[in-house]
Specification:
This protein is of the alpha+beta class. It has one domain: Aminopeptidase. A five-stranded antiparallel sheet has the order 1-2-3-4-5, sandwiched between helices. The longest helix has 18 residues. The chain binds coenzyme A. The site of coenzyme A has 19 residues, from strand 5, helix 3 and helix 4. It holds the Pfam family Acetyltransf_3. Keywords: Transferase. GO terms for molecular function: acyltransferase activity, transferring groups other than amino-acyl groups.
């Protein structure tokens, strides 16, 4: 099972003690502002179980992110194969969700950079995508900081046609471009 070490972070398999802080961040309406709803404890635990299971099965996924200085669980960052069919499927996405106290420190970008390196070098992916509701400027800014290329708009198929979150921006980074940045 892969663990990824960055200067300030450890990306690792989920553990039981992550569930409580994860439920707290999933109940935070600011963290979940660009999702249809915040998550209650059961839904949060289900998501943590799913992340844990996928890492168990595949060795990679949405890793739990731990701050090295105090070993606090701060959220997740990693790679995921969306189960829903998207206009650009099959694909592997890079994604992130951190507790609000840890925004504005460059931590999501630091973790995602290493997740991309894992995807290209260890998994041998040719391209990794990322997408977000058009309102989520903070998430889009992470994609830009990672030098991902804008690929256009799409309508997320799991959202209602009248949802304000329906329209999503799609970004992608090819292995060739990633290598050229090194
Ligand atoms: C999306 C999300 C992870 C982005 O977090 P973030 O903290 O804005 O992004 P980063 O970790 O890359 O940090 C970048 C910010 O830290 C600042 N920063 C401070 N110290 C830094 C350092 N040492 N290195 C780099 N950047 C640093 C940058 O200047 C930047 O600030 P700015 O936004 O004012 O320009 C966060 O908003 C989140 O978890 N949102 C809720 C969940 C969500 O929407 N997920 C995405 C769904 S698609």
């Amino acid at each position: 099972m892969t663990e990824i070490d960055t200067p300030r972070l450890l990306l690792r398999q989920w553990q039981d003690s992550d569930y409580q802080p994860f439920a707290r961040l999933n109940a935070d309406v600011d963290v979940m502002a660009h999702f249809p709803t915040a998550l209650d404890k059961d839904a949060s635990n289900q998501m943590a179980n799913k992340c844990r299971q996928l890492i168990n099965d595949n060795g990679w996924g949405f890793w739990a992110v731990e701050l090295k200085e105090n070993r606090a669980f701060i959220g997740f960052v990693g790679l995921h194969r969306p189960t829903i069919t998207l206009p650009f499927s099959p694909c592997v996405e890079v994604g992130w969700r951190l507790a609000k106290a840890y925004w504005g420190k460059g931590l999501a970008t630091e973790a995602a950079r290493e997740a991309l390196a894992f995807g290209f070098m260890t998994l041998g992916l040719d391209e990794i995508v990322s997408f977000t509701a058009t309102s989520n400027k903070q998430s889009e800014a992470v994609m830009k900081r990672l030098h991902m290329d804008y690929k256009g708009l799409f309508e997320h198929p799991s959202l209602a046609k009248d949802s304000p979150l329906l329209k999503h921006h799609l970004y992608g980074l090819t292995k060739a471009k990633w290598l050229s940045l090194k």
